[in-house]
């Protein structure tokens, strides 16, 4: 399937070296303010060629609105957004036409379909995530009007990490450095490390953390479509994402219930709150009104510029080395993608809970 979401749905199309990529958004309520500049801003945060620590493919990722918007607001009909590919360099991939890059999607795509658009990884390229970011930017505009905010940031690259306590971090710092880390000193060290790894013709992994604030209590289902499960699927659907944990996550297994439980209290306005938030804002698959926070692990990029053992499609031994322009580390560009997939997940859950009439959603 090329579709994500049940009630607020996106369908993406296009290949990395094809003519264009794009997204159709179905289920967005009518009457949502549509700020094209803000959508472009999100795409600019993701686009390739943005700094010395990303792939050097130069794409403007300038977005065309094809449908679903009139006089600055959504009309409730499918929203079509299109981005033309402009800087494909397909000759960088001629040598892997019949050979599989270790740990990219080449072999598995071939095993499933029996053919593949090997140019730039085709449909398996993270270029597709531009379409998700465009769709996610619309979801964000809808959710911002409900007071829901998304803050993703790079929390680890290699062994360099920021504080685990996100309340001590300054999210305003994130867009001030090219790695998108809220700690300016750690950001410097991360940039230096990624640059060194790049010079070594190698790649490195990292972690993107995310905080979603302003989510009302009551989103999510008690079984299967638990909000945590929907978020997990959204994150694990991003290229190169290897892990997802929310709230106390794996570290929580080391605690006893007596320290892990989030005690309840009523705040001055009578709202039910918890004193701690090891649950990460979700209990029993349903949001409890506290911040939702989670971490996503990204592997080192598969295409490295050194010889590696491989096999060709006929089973013969082969040697393969990457060519062309690749990310030495995906996390700086994964930040807006994590936010986009979060926004799409929450938008879907809001509409599933409250219907898609904006006046009714705002009243409830
Ligand atoms: C923002 C972003 C940029 C990426 N850039 C590259 C890249 O330049 N070269 C590459 O080989 N993989 C890159 N990847 C990862 C591949 O797309 C991914 O490894 C591939 O689709 C195989 O999927 P898997 O790693 O999830 O198994 C990138 C991923 C993301 C999220
Ligand atoms: C083009 C983008 O990133 C690409 C993601 C990618 C991959 O294998 O995922 C491989 C590279 O493709 P190409 O060789 O065509 O430059 C990256 O540049 C993008 O994110 O827009």
UniProtKB/TrEMBL annotation:
Record keywords: Amino-acid biosynthesis, Aromatic amino acid biosynthesis, FAD, Flavoprotein, FMN, Lyase, NADP
InterPro entries: Chorismate_synth, Chorismate_synth_AroC_sf, Chorismate_synthase_CS
Name of the protein in its database record: Chorismate synthase
Binding sites annotated in the UniProt record for NADP(+): 46, 52
Catalysed reactions, semicolon-separated: 5-O-(1-carboxyvinyl)-3-phosphoshikimate = chorismate + phosphate
Pathway(s) annotated for this protein in UniProt: Metabolic intermediate biosynthesis; chorismate biosynthesis; chorismate from D-erythrose 4-phosphate and phosphoenolpyruvate: step 7/7
SUPFAM superfamilies assigned: Chorismate synthase, AroC
One Pfam family linked to the record: Chorismate_synt
GO molecular function: chorismate synthase activity; FMN binding
Entry GO terms, CC: cytosol
Subunit and interaction comment: Homotetramer.
Cofactors named for this entry: FMNH2
Cofactor, free-text remark: Reduced FMN (FMNH(2)).
Record PANTHER family: CHORISMATE SYNTHASE
Chain segments annotated as transmembrane: none
Residues the record lists as binding FMN: 123-125, 239-240, 284, 299-303, 325
Class of this enzyme: lyase
GO biological process, one term: chorismate biosynthetic process
Protein family per UniProt: Belongs to the chorismate synthase family.
Gene3D superfamilies registered for this protein in UniProt: Chorismate synthase AroC
Role: This reaction introduces a second double bond into the aromatic ring system.
Entry's EC annotation: 4.2.3.5
